[in-house]
Amino acid sequence: MLGLNKTDSKFLLIVILLTLFTPFLMQPFAADSGLDQFNGGYPDLMQKVAIFGIFAVGFNILFGLTGYLSFGHAAFLGMGSYAAVWMFKLLTMNVIPAILLSMIVSGLLAVIIGYISLRRSGIYFSILTLAFAQMCYKMAYSVLTPITNGETGLQLSLSDPRILDGATESTSLPVTNIFGLAMNSSYKLEALNRVFTFNVGFYFCAIIASIAFYIAIRLFRSPFGMMLRAVKSNQQRMNYMGLNTKPYTLAAFVISGMYAGLAGGLLAAMDPLAGADRMLWTASGEVVIMTILGGAGTLMGPVLGAGVIKYLENIFSKINESVLHSWFHWLPDGLEEVVVWVFARFTGEGWHLTLGLTFMLVVTFLPGGLVEGIKRLKKLTKRGQKPKDKLDAPDPEHTPPPSKHVV
Amino acid sequence: MDAILLQILNGLDKGSAYALIALGLTLIFGTLGVVNFAHGAIFMIGAFCAVTLSRLLSLSFETVDPTKTDFLGNPATIKTPYVEAWFGPEFGSAMIDWAVPLAIIFSIPVMIAVGFIMERGLIKHFYKRPHADQILVTFGLAIVLQEVIKYFYGANPISTPAPEVFKGSFDFGVMFGFDPNAIIYPYWRMVYFLFAAVVIGAVFSFLRFTTFGMVVRAGMADRETVGLLGIDIDRRFTIMFGLAAAVAGMAGVMYAPILSPNYHMGMDFLVLSFVVVVVGGMGSLPGAVAAGFLLGILESFASMNEVKSILPGIDQIVIYVVAIIILLTRPRGLMGKRGVMEE
After folding, report:
1. Domain span at residue A326?
2. Which site among A352, A386, B70, B313 is 20 to 30 Å from A282 CA-CA?
3. Which of A134, A151, A288, A321 has the highest number of chain B CBs within 10 A, making it the mutation to test binding with B?
4. Cβ contacts from A onto B, under 8 A
């Protein structure tokens, strides 16, 4: 299908189906079941999952394939947001031109940053990208205030020209739309004691995320992707073979920057404002965490990581002490206090603590991320059936099936 | 002339902090080969050592003074810090006043312990892993340490004053024959700079003039050979990690009166310190110190109004611009050695 082999088509289908049915999947508990707070099927969260999925998939194209760890991807995210909001202000509230411009602008920024940063590798590259991102962040706060509106952040206003939309008499701010279909409109379906929300914005993000994922698969399987992997495994050898790796790594950097810009543009399309804190280096750290947690270098990993982190972030932040008390009320009094106290440290305000700890544990014990964890689990369950030495099993990627020499 | 001198002085205190953190980072990198993203968090923990000690010293009990009444007519309660009750009011209040300098003594064992636990408990397992993994795990550790501090001390900055003696500023210019009031410099910043100079000097002479330091330097040059000579180099490197943590911690303690400690101050300094290390040259101790002061002073020059009127906003980005230029023209940094981190 679409130039993919069987497994990849299956992957793509799974991702498309997952995104299409997200409103159902994230609403697994009935409204009155007491587990209602674990439902994540509201538009804001679903949009974020899709958008950060795109961001992480793009980051993975750089980090997973080439091994260059960028700590400055938030610069592209922020840049995309600013570009998109400017498009909403000047041209039209239609989201298509906005996200196109945000991809182009962040792509250009990626060319500049990448061209300079890729002259160095390893830790130097990380620090250079970090320095560039911090520079963009500081500039958005100081010199570029006329463009970025400084600390207030860039917002829409009634007096914006919006050339294509024409003048309206309305006194409320226009909403982002796609050919008239407003992004924030949703259709609610009440069934099975649950409320399923089908949001236009989410489906827009989901479609784009599926396309982005498809492009990523094609990239992973292309000769270009192979080249990037070769850069990761041994750049020196590539250089000695007389191959200039720079154009390849730069292309990967720019593509991943454009993914980040696309994600930023979509963030602005869902909620038309842009602030400099999207460029802060903690935001770069977040996408690194997502990719690693899911599994860097794998196709599903970043999507999984983005979904898990955004979902848990929302759920964990909602759990406060009174919720915990209602869970553990069956425990003896003294014990209940202790258990609630311990759990309260990791939920609500303590979400970042949980995130940091989880991240450390994953990096230490499961460097391949969740994807590797799933693989290990599968192996554990299959162990009885196929006792196969790991070394004997040929890796299909590195040992192609023998071709017939003699016909 | 006096304006230039003033900017140099202004750059010194920030430069000292950069230099101290960068020195610790370079020590860890040079000995253990680990890129420590949690070093900023160590600096922050140091600053909170000062907060903790000043809080401990001001712990007080309440007594009822029957001779006075408060505005409601009840007998007034008077808070007396324990230290004043134990050591007499004068010495006790002096101790509270001098909490920040005292915190240095308090912080050294704490920071060395933190360093040991970090190295033995976590970083030890990452020597053979790629640099990316080291960055990631220490980044996670930094988040955890930040959140722990945030839980205990809250999210707001806690002001921690310097001793009364060092409050205020002195007229630095008069000493050199400039007009009065041309160069006003706060005492504490001068103290900070002198303190940093002493610490840097101590670290360098420790490495240069002691047997232990000699072994460590030999280990930095060629770890394997030193190991083959029957020297337990790992143990010495662990001690160096503790030392680096203590240096960053002391830098944090003394910085508390300049910048009220908050839980994310470490991250802010970390990014800049990495830039400093890279500019100075990865693995070069003198480079780290020189680059720290250089960038601190450059930053303060860029915040002069004359400069800002030509290049608006330059003060915010000058460090990054310089770092990028230096990395592109001298990829090894100012004093980087050949063969360090060049894959």
Report:
1. 319-380
2. B313
3. A134
4. 117
Give the total residue count for chain A.
407
> Do A130 and A207 fall within a single domain?
yes
- Contact at CB, B313 and A131, closer than 8 angstroms: no
Chain A positions touching B271 (Cβ under 8 A) are: 130-131, 134, 281
Two tokens at A83? 């570009």
| Residue B96: strand, helix, or coil | helix
Q: A67 to chain B: nearest residue by CA?
A: B132
The residues spanned by each domain of chain B are 2-329
Listing DSSP states for A229-298 in one string gives HHHHH-HHHHHHTT---HHHHHHHHHHHHHHHHHHHHHHHHHS-EE-GGGGSHHHHHHHHHHHHHH-TTS
The full length of chain B comes to 343
- What is the chain A residue with the closest CA to B29? A123
Model pLDDT for residues A318-355, shown as the tens digit of each residue: 777 777 777 777 777 778 778 877 777 777 777 888 88
ipTM > 0.90, yes or no: no
Question: Does A199 reside within a domain?
Answer: yes
Which residues in chain A have their CB less than 8 angstroms from residue B146's CB? 352, 356
Phi then psi for residue B64, to 5 deg, are -95, 125
Residue listed under structure tokens 């600053």: B47
What CA–CA distances, in Å, run from B63 to A405, B88, B200? 99, 16, 46
Contact indicator for A305, A362 with CB cutoff of 8 Å: no
What confidence tens digit (pLDDT) does each residue in A209-245 have?
999 999 998 998 899 999 999 988 888 888 898 888 8
Question: Mind giving me the DSSP string for B239-294?
Answer: HHHHHHHHHHHHHHHHHTTTS---TTHHHHHHHHHHHHHHHH-TT-HHHHHHHHHH
Are A37 and A88 members of one domain? yes
Amino acid at A45: L
Architecture of domain B2-329 in this structure? Orthogonal Bundle (1.10)
Q: Is residue A55 part of a domain?
A: yes
pTM above 0.90, yes or no: no
Measured between alpha carbons, how far is A373 from A98 in angstroms, rounded to an integer? 39
**Number of domains into which chain A is organized:** 2
